Amino acid sequence: MGHKNAFLKRMQANHEREAKTGIMLAEKWTRQAACDALVLLLGYGACMGRTKWGKKRILRAVEEWTELFLWVLKGLQGAPDSDAVRIQADRLLKEKVPEDLYREWDGRYPGWESETLEQEAERLRPAWKREGALAADTVTGKLLKGVGAEGKTGSGKGGGGL
Question: pLDDT by residue (tens digit) across 103-132?
Fold first, then answer.
């Protein structure tokens, strides 16, 4: 029976790896399609009038666009600073998008639901328990092993904390 369990574990690991690979591929294709559209717009778009951009300027724009695209993706990925990314992106977009067209994060990303701190803590609690931690560093998002509710390590010397 031990062989069967090992086989099932390998199958599950393969399935998880394939799912992650599919997600990564979808992200790369989405980023590439959006980048292609940006290059075509800047180089050939009617909205550019007579000032269509050349290769050097397009390259600079694509490099900056890529950084911004990855930054906005952080808002969707549940990273420790995702909330800050969403708030800042909303603030910056609100300054540039016409009022009648502007939508906050939840409206721009259908199906997205913002999580309260209490909901996030409830979602992460099983991982904290599984890792033997009672707290998580809110800056890095890393679990603090052996940290008690008072934010002190088990060494009696204090330390760690939220």
Answer: 999 899 887 776 667 777 787 778 777 766
The first and second tokens of residue 83, run together, are 């909330």
Cβ–Cβ < 8 Å for 116, 122: no
Count, residues in the chain: 162
What is the model's pTM? 0.56
C-alpha 83/C-alpha 156 separation (Å) is: 34
pLDDT digits (tens, 9 = 90+) for 70-100: 899 888 887 778 889 999 999 999 999 999 9
d(CA 124, CA 134): 10
Distance CA 105, CA 94 (A): 11
Structure token digits, residue 41: 């717009």
DSSP, collapsed to helix, strand or coil, labels residue 63 as: helix
Q: How far is CA 74 from the centre of its chain?
A: 3
The DSSP secondary-structure symbol of 106 reads: H
Give CA–CA dist 96/98, Å, rounded.
7
For a pLDDT cut of 70, what percent of the chain falls above it? 75
Buried b (16+ CB within 10 A) or exposed e, 97-132: eeeeeeeebeeeeeeeeeeeeeebeeeeeeebeeee
